[in-house]
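Issue 218. Parser rejects a valid record. Input:
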Amino acid sequence: MLLLKTYLSVFSFICLSANPVFSQEKGLASFYGDAFHGSQTASGENYDRNEMTGAHKTLPFGTYVKVTRADNGRSVVIKINDRGPYIKGRVIDVSRKAAEKLGMVNDGVVEVTVEKTSKSASSSSATAESSRTPKPAPAPAPEPKKEVEEKQPAPKPKVVRVSKKDDPAKVIPKPAKAAKSKPTPSKMKLVNSKTYNDYDLYKLQVLRPEKEGFGVQVASLTDFENVLKQIAKLQDNHFKNILTSIERGSNGKPHYKIMLGPFPEMDTANAYKKSLAKKHKINGFVVPLAEIQY
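Output the parser choked on:
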């Protein structure tokens, strides 16, 4: 009997651990930089700064959550379509549009509460400030116009004379211009180390960020083919803030340095470096981006 009770207790613990119930989460929220607009997210969708979306570490893709600021009560409803953030203390990343509605663009990082909700709540979601704004009174209906007692004479029909030159039977219509065909967008999947091939078709988007802040360097390579492999390997763990510095080597040939970032402060970059070593067994070091020599 004692053995049966022990078995049932262990079984209940396993079941509860395998199916955690997400109710509410408190922590820090940040938002995507404009440089990620159009980049592919972990769900396969492209990030659109004008959509109400966000990133969470564990919630299934397609889940809708309500994000509420702790200081002013503003809230938005967003859809989870990406993984992250991976900085200690942060619980969610939101799109640029969601950040604007929360009033956090100038603040950068704010304290929030995250709750699961339904998609229908997004239409009824409003900020605490807008709910206190009184609605304008409806404009008075215009008074009906009085009918004119005296009847006006009907206008005489105009006679339009058509010359032979204007004879529609002799006019040859011009053919309509053919509409320009647009390429059909293809579906794309995020490439990782298992799906990467030496010879294949890939989409590359080259962006030049500001040389400000700090990066965490995780690789130094001399072969561009290995650069693509290293990026695919980093994407195994859903890293998306990947930088590549192309520098002139001592032999005059290009030298490639792979970094994660950027981070605005040295302390933040150091904390991220320690998190990489602890969670992903990746050893790196902090590099001031402004001091990189080309």
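Fixed in the parser; the record now loads. Residues 165 and 171 are 9 Å apart (CA to CA).
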